Amino acid sequence: MSKWINVNDEDDCGYVDFNKELYAMPDKGNTSVDIRLTFNTDRRTCYYTISLKNDDGNTRDWQQDNHVPWAVGIAMLGDDVTVPEGWK
């Protein structure tokens, strides 16, 4: 399984997104199942979306905006990401 990657490193926009590949489908080219974890830093809310990404870059969301508590989102990041002290 891959590590979380920060896809928008701009804290001033109010949202910080992390992507992670959950499962690669080698028999389907570069198709993968991915998860995106979004933190709304202004409201201190968190949600994730699970998607199927195919090899031409198109993404189809299977589940959208599954809200989780802020602390659960931080825990989902694990040791892959060093979170700012103010996030804890």
Main sheet properties: 5 strands, antiparallel
- Would you tell me the structural class of the helices and strands? mainly beta
Roughly what percent helix?
under 10%
Largest beta sheet: what is the strand line-up?
Answer: 1-2-3-4-5
Question: What is the element string, with H for helices and E for strands?
Answer: EEEEEH
Strand content: over 45%
Overall radius of gyration:
14 Å
Q: N-to-C terminal Cα separation, in Å?
A: 25 Å
Overall pLDDT level: 85
Q: Provide a count of the helices.
A: 1
Describe the structure.
- It is built from one helix and five strands.
- With 88 residues, it is mainly β.
Brief account:
The chain has one helix at 70-77; strands spanning 5-6, 15-24, 32-40, 45-53, 59-68. It is mainly beta and 88 residues long. It has a five-stranded antiparallel β-sheet with strand order 1-2-3-4-5.
Give short descriptive properties of this protein:
88 residues, elongated, mainly beta
Secondary-structure blueprint:
Blueprint: E1 5-6, E2 15-24, E3 32-40, E4 45-53, E5 59-68, H1 70-77
Antiparallel strand pairs: 1-2, 2-3, 3-4, 4-5
